[in-house]
Amino acid sequence: MLGILVPYSVLMNSILYGESLYGSWGKFLSILVVTLFIKCVSWQFHTYVAVYLRTRMPQDSQIMRRMLTALLLFFVMTALDGIFITWLFHHYHFQGFVYRGDRFLYVVLSGMVLNLFATLFHEGASNFEKWRAALTETEQLRTAYIKSQLEGLKNQIKPHFLFNSINTLSALIGEDGEKAEAFLDELCKVYRYLLKNDGQFVTLSEELAFVASYFYVLKARYGQAIELHMDIDESEMEKLVPPFTLQLLLENALHNNVVSKKMPLRIYIGTTGDGQLVIENSVSTKIKANLEADEGGIRNVINKFRLLGMAEISIQQLVGARRIQLPLMMQKNLEI
User: Fold this and answer.
1) Helix, strand, coil percentages in the chain from 3-state DSSP, rounded to 5
2) pLDDT of residue 267
3) Most buried of the four, 46, 131, 147, 270, by CB within 10 Å?
4) Are residues 313 and 302 in contact, defined by beta-carbon separation less than 8 angstroms?
5) Helix orientation angle between 2-17 and 63-91, rounded to the nearest 10 degrees
6) Which has the closest alpha carbon to 86: 105, 68, 72?
7) Which residues contact 146 (CB under 8 A, 6 or more apart)?
8) Residue 256, Cβ neighbours under 10 Å: how many?
9) pLDDT at residue number 277
10) Over the stretch 96-124, which tens digit does the pLDDT of each residue have?
11) Are strands 226-231 and 265-271 parallel, antiparallel or unpaired?
12) 86 contact partners, CB below 8 Å, separation of at least 6
């Protein structure tokens, strides 16, 4: 405020008084103090109007309407405080003031230029801050996306998963050689999918094939304690989804719920017919010290979808179940 109003007040006084303004320091400073005080009060009203208009018209699409409305009001307000200052100096013949109409016109015009400059400056600064905030958020989301990829890899190759799979395979070899061979084949499919998918999207059919192999490995370990039912519309199979999304959600459901024969974890994967994938699981929550910390899988999926510019994920807590809806992307909408 002072950075703009101090030089402007000097300019305005120079227009009104001419060379007589610089007759003495006392005269110069007394006129400047009076003008600056009135201008500072006026600035507060200008600020109130600017904040009010930004509240009423906050959208970026309304920026031109907001600026034009603000400038119109600012021009009127600046003209009024210019009239008041000129009248005050003239009425009291302050420091030998002599009114001249041509000089007053220049005061009004200079005020309009000041308002135009200040409005453009503030809008530019505001948009720059929005751009910088958006850039920071994008970088944060990018970091979160990379983290989610690493979390997906970690969930696939973490020692206890591999250790349990080897133990299961070892037990099957002694019991049923054919089942052991089938188990090993599905386990190889899981890691083959892991190694080959490093892109942003895969088709839903590829992701579901991976989930089927992943669930086969889990089923061999948990038996009747877990159930999976899939009902997918064939027309949705070629739509796209980020890889490992379903695995993260399945892992999250396993981690947060009791899994036993008496309380089996039931998981349903289906489509809604309007481009949405549904994952629903029964809820029998474990007793933990920090439930919030155990939702990392879902948070990573949410951040990944935001970074990829996809629609929001819907999470609903139903009676005895959790329902998650994910948007599927059409191949033609994928930007190469």
Assistant:
1) 70, 10, 20
2) 94
3) 46
4) yes
5) 50
6) 105
7) none
8) 20
9) 93
10) 888 888 888 888 888 888 888 888 888 78
11) parallel
12) 16, 99, 104, 107
The residue ranges of the chain whose pLDDT is under 70 are: 145-161, 197-199, 287-296, 332-336
**Overall size of the chain counted in residues:** 336
- In three-state secondary structure terms, 182 is helix
Contact 269, 277 (CB under 8 A): yes
Report how far residue 146's alpha carbon sits from residue 148's, in angstroms, rounded to the nearest whole number. Answer: 5
Residues 141 and 173: their CA atoms lie apart, in Å, by 45
Buried-exposed string 279-318: b where 16+ CB fall within 10 A, e elsewhere: bbbbbbeeeeeeeeeeebbbbbbbbbbbbeebeebeeeee
pLDDT of residue 289: 45
Please answer whether residues 305 and 326 qualify as being in contact, where contact means their C-beta atoms are separated by less than 8 angstroms. Answer: yes
Burial of 242 (0-12, 13-18, 19+ CB in 10 A): buried
Give the model's pLDDT for residue 208.
94
Amino acid at 264: P
